[in-house]
Write a structure and sequence with these properties.
It is globular, with a radius of gyration of 22 Å. Helix 4 runs parallel beside helix 11 (299-320). The protein has 2 domains: 8-123 and 250-320, D-Maltodextrin-Binding Protein, domain 2, CATH 3.40.190.150; 124-222, D-Maltodextrin-Binding Protein, domain 2 (3-Layer(aba) Sandwich), CATH 3.40.190.10. Helix 6 links the parallel strand 5 (153-156) and strand 6. The protein is of the alpha/beta class and 325 residues long. The chain has 11 helices and 9 strands.
Length: 325
């Protein structure tokens, strides 16, 4: 009888503790922000800047955990299966909208298994080549790769990466198939480009700006309507002879499906603060990008944008016939 009573008391104590813990205001412990790519890449850079600012406003540490592989789908699948309590967040780029078309089988639904929080930034892309590449400007680059399509090598960071998507569109635009060399991330691809093992690539300004300014690579064009302020001497693709070729790599923040609305609202508010943070804005500018406007850093805006991007990329990918297992 005594043991039964003690067990009952212990059970009530645990229950009371659980209720008390549940009643604690969010957040009350460390938050993990999953990035589905290797450390040091452009998406990782964006995540760490945002996480640092959110740590201050949320008054809890926001750590970045890199869960790379399979074009970002391994990290996405992990988040989709995580507890919807606000302690697991997910920062991904345009790949969230292309994975449904690129991969025949996904263990998650890109729309239904996530709670959108807000857009973060639109990052321009740049066409760059090894330092001793023969072409002097973008027109010469296009002419050279078309004339030497069996010898020229195009590097990318793997299926579904921004550099893969840009290269796929480029080859479609110039009607030329090139030899592509996929890597397990942007870092290794850039290292081999710097070492001259591959010829050229198209990648985000967050990864290329320092290499361009340092004179380590040849820069040919940016993939935006207007020139990038941090790279004013580099023409747009339209200026350089490829009208209408525009690619921007957007980044968004998500939580697992079912995360309570009050938690989403707190994280959204912290994101809004981060995108107005002078340090974040300056670092983004240094990297050739800028935060999105406040009206785009919302769950509604990200949800609508994700759906429109899935609709945009699906026919392009299917036409190219590019799939991953």
């Amino acid at each position: 009888m005594k043991n039964t009573f003690l067990k009952s008391v212990a059970g009530l104590a645990l229950l009371a503790s659980a209720f008390a813990h549940a009643a604690d205001p969010y957040p009350n412990k460390t938050i993990t922000m999953i990035v589905p790519f290797a450390a040091g890449g452009p998406t990782d850079t964006v995540a760490r800047l945002v996480a640092q600012s959110m740590t201050t406003s949320l008054k809890q540490t926001v750590i970045v955990e890199n869960v790379g592989g399979a074009g970002g789908t391994i990290g996405a699948a992990r988040v989709a299966k995580s507890a919807p309590d606000g302690y697991t967040l997910f920062l991904h780029h345009i790949g969230q909208s292309t994975a449904p078309s690129l991969y025949r089988k996904l263990s998650y639904n890109a729309i239904d298994d996530f709670e959108p929080i807000g857009l973060i930034t639109d990052v321009p892309m740049t066409f760059i080549a090894r330092g001793d590449f023969p072409a002097k400007d973008f027109k010469e680059l296009v002419a050279y790769v078309k004339a030497n399509k069996n010898k020229v090598t195009y590097a990318n960071a793997g299926v579904g990466s921004a550099s893969h998507l840009c290269g796929m569109l480029f080859m479609t635009a110039i009607d030329t198939e090139l030899t592509t060399v996929p890597y397990k991330g942007t870092g290794p691809a850039m290292n081999d480009l710097l070492g001259g093992q591959v010829d050229f690539m198209c990648d985000q300004t967050t990864n290329t700006t320092s290499q361009i300014k340092g004179g380590k690579v040849k820069a040919y064009a940016v993939t935006t309507k207007v020139r990038v302020p941090s790279l004013p001497n580099i023409p747009t693709t339209s200026e350089a002879g490829l009208p209408g070729f525009e690619v921007a790599v957007w980044h968004g923040l998500y939580a697992p499906k079912g995360t309570p609305k009050p938690v989403i609202e707190k994280v959204e508010a912290a994101l809004q603060v981060a995108l107005k943070d002078p340090t974040v804005k300056q670092r983004f500018a240094d990297l050739g990008t800028e935060p999105v406007s406040a009206d785009r850093a919302t769950p509604e805006a990200l949800r609508a944008h994700l759906k429109s991007e899935i609709a945009k990329w699906s026919p392009i990918i299917k036409k190219a016939g590019v799939y991953a297992d």
